[in-house]
Automatic annotation (TrEMBL):
InterPro entries found in the cross-reference section: Ribosomal_uL1-like, Ribosomal_uL1/biogenesis, Ribosomal_uL1_3-a/b-sand
The protein's name: Mitochondrial ribosomal protein L1
Native species: Champsocephalus gunnari
Residue span of region Disordered: 47-67
UniProt keyword annotations, A-Z: Ribonucleoprotein, Ribosomal protein
Cellular component per GO, a single term: ribonucleoprotein complex
Biased composition regions of type Basic and acidic residues, renumbered to the chain: 52-67
Record flagged with keyword Ribosomal protein: yes
Lineage, uppermost ranks: Eukaryota, Metazoa, Chordata, Craniata, Vertebrata
Length: 328
């Protein structure tokens, strides 16, 4: 009996201490000066952030990406083998195959025959560019217009010419421009009464076209694109049949280059023209500019191809042969 009473007393004393911790001075029957067990904080205080924390992060040296040399290995790192032994395999277990430019075009035509898809369908390319420069700078996204040796469009582009000279405006209209004139064309463009695919101008009109900057945006005539000059006939010939492409998402060029029903030579000629024009935007001393190149038709799967096959520099022997021909 005594042991039971002692146990009950211990339980009652523990409950009393717990009530004193939670309620504190709310119980008037207990003296406020009596010693109480205060709760103990079991978590650490938040570390105050330093003002120069950003600067410290910038000073941290980034770890360089490890490059594994697979040249002397029996199989590439992380893959099952160098190439599958038959035509039934899981693609992710083998390294991706980069085909030659001519071979990739031939594959697109093979896909069309096997899939029974229309022969008249567009061919697109997807290029990933190396836009990085020194000191965390990047190459500015650009827009370019190139004259393809074998145009695939059935209709010519609409070109509008800005010029204050009435004779030049009449000449531009006779040469194929859809509209030609001076400042009187600004308000109709702002009101969406007239529009065109390309806008070209003479240098004297450039300052007067400032109100159209927000309206035309990327189509606003710029000297870098060849849309500002005094040779109206040359600019019209360029933009009426020219093909425009631009850099999207900071480093990608996605554009159509040909139709599948064209010959292999015509497709390769257009492809080479676009690749050369893209590489002409590369800053000096920076190569390779094209990191990855993909070609595909509208209904086929994508084919990775080697863009350097069409961008190879002429060898010394070829240069000597060219010099010999010129001397003759």
């Amino acid at each position: 009996m005594a042991s039971c009473s002692r146990t009950v007393w211990k339980v009652f004393a523990g409950c009393q201490r717990q009530l004193l911790r939670a309620g504190g001075p709310a119980f008037t029957g207990i003296s406020p000066t009596a010693p109480r067990n205060l709760p103990v904080r079991t978590f650490a205080a938040v570390k105050p952030q330093r003002k120069n924390q950003k600067e410290d992060k910038e000073k941290e040296v980034k770890k360089e990406r490890r490059v594994i040399d697979d040249s002397d290995r029996q199989k590439p790192y992380g893959f099952t083998g160098w190439a599958p032994v038959d035509d039934v395999y899981v693609p992710r277990f083998y390294p991706r195959t980069n085909y030659g430019a001519a071979e990739s075009v031939d594959m697109l035509k093979t896909f069309q025959r096997l899939d029974f898809t229309p022969l008249k369908q567009p061919i697109f390319i997807d290029l990933r560019l190396n836009m990085k420069l020194e000191k965390k700078k990047k190459v500015d996204a650009f827009i370019s217009t190139v004259h393809l040796p074998h145009p695939f469009k059935t209709e010519m582009n609409k070109v509008l010419v800005f010029t204050a000279d009435a004779n030049q405006a009449q000449f531009a209209l006779e040469s194929g421009a859809v509209f030609a004139g001076g400042v009187e064309l600004i308000q109709p463009i702002l009101d969406d009464e007239i529009s065109a695919d390309f806008y070209i101008t003479v240098p004297d009109m450039l300052q007067k076209l400032v109100p159209l900057k927000n309206k035309l945006r990327k189509k606003f005539p710029k000297s870098k694109r060849g849309a500002v000059g005094i040779n109206i006939l040359k600019m019209l010939a360029m933009f009426k049949t020219g093909h425009e492409y631009m850099v999207e998402d900071d480093c990608y060029v996605r554009t159509q280059i040909a139709m599948l029903d064209m010959t292999d030579e015509q497709i390769l000629a257009n492809l080479e023209t676009v690749l050369l024009d893209v590489c002409s935007q590369r800053p000096a001393g920076m190569e390779p500019f094209i990191e990855r190149a993909i070609i595909a038709s509208q209904t086929s799967e994508a084919v990775w191809f080697r863009s350097e096959d069409l961008l190879q520099k002429p060898t010394e022997q070829q240069q000597e042969e060219e010099k010999a021909v010129l001397t003759i």
